[in-house]
């Protein structure tokens, strides 16, 4: 994945990923400014500006005599695309992917129904064009790009100005969801069929069918996530789960500090 070109942004990205990945601040506190300045070979002013950005993103809080302390995950700006990138790259708490799909289920079925009802012929044409790009994509990257366009085209076709304002958020949510669910090109291609059902319902001007097929699409995405390597799998009679991969330090710490994230 491309890293920020601006030096300040690069440092924020480095520190953010280290915090989320549990590579720094394991005791709940960031190292002192002078220690970070030495570690990254920059001035304390540069470190101070970077920590201000991390504070604005909710990852840390600062105060006199206590320095910078890491906040629980519930305080992070989870819908910020950069924060969402850090979390999904670090394979954080198992509840996060559930939250992603729940958010999508609140937005996308309604958007699909509105698109079927209100979309212009040109807007619906953009939806179907994105679908054909998905079907003919030679690899996973191309498929993912076309999938982005498909879902964003549905938002555009919804004709709802408030839903359009959610497009940057949905883009971040989709990016994180795709990263968790589309493990290989073969599985990505298998998702084309359910996308085609959504596009067909929109083209046929059938709002309720469009809503239902989008709900079915999201269920397929959930199934893909459940089958991904390292995802939670059922064990025992109580429906409890275990994970094949280790969670990050701050995933565990966030649940300790924020018991609502069970």
Explain this structure:
By secondary structure, this protein is mainly α. The protein has two domains: 72 residues, Arc Repressor Mutant, subunit A, CATH 1.10.10.10; 134 residues, Up-down Bundle (Four Helix Bundle (Hemerythrin (Met), subunit A)). Helix content is 66%, strand content 6%. It contains 13 helices and four strands. Helix 2 crosses helix 3, helix 6 runs antiparallel to helix 7 and helix 11 runs antiparallel to helix 12. The radius of gyration is 21 Å and the shape is elongated.
- CATH superfamily (homologous) name of the largest domain: GntR ligand-binding domain-like
CATH class bucket of the largest domain: Mainly Alpha
Alpha carbon gyration radius: 21 Å
Main sheet properties: 2 strands, antiparallel
Descriptive keywords:
Four Helix Bundle (Hemerythrin (Met), subunit A), disordered N terminus, 66% helix, two-stranded antiparallel ribbon, disordered C terminus, 2 domains, 262 residues, two-stranded antiparallel sheet
């Amino acid at each position: 994945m491309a890293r920020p070109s601006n030096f300040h942004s690069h440092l924020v990205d480095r520190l953010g990923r280290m915090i989320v990945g549990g590579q720094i601040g394991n005791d709940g506190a960031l190292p002192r400014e002078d220690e970070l300045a030495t570690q990254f070979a920059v001035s304390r002013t540069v470190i101070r500006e970077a920590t201000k950005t991390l504070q604005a993103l909710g990852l840390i809080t600062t105060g006199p005599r206590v320095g910078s302390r890491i906040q629980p995950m519930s305080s992070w700006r989870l819908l910020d695309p950069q924060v969402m990138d850090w979390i999904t790259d670090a394979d954080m708490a198992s509840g996060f992917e559930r939250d992603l799909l729940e958010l999508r289920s609140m937005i996308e079925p309604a958007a699909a129904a509105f698109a079927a009802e209100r979309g212009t012929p040109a807007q619906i044409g953009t939806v179907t064009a994105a679908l054909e790009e998905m079907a003919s994509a030679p690899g996973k990257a191309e498929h993912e790009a076309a999938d982005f366009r498909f879902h964003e085209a549905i938002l555009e076709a919804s004709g709802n100005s408030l839903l359009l304002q959610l497009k940057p958020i949905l883009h971040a949510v989709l990016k994180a969801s795709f990263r968790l669910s589309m493990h290989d090109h073969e599985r990505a291609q298998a998702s084309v069929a359910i996308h085609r059902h959504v596009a067909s319902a929109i083209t046929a001007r059938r709002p309720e069918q469009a809503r239902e097929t989008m709900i079915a699409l999201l269920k397929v995405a959930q199934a893909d996530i459940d089958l991904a390597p390292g995802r939670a799998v059922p064990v025992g009679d109580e429906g409890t789960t275990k994970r094949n991969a280790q969670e990050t330090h701050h995933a565990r710490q966030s649940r300790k500090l924020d018991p609502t994230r069970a």
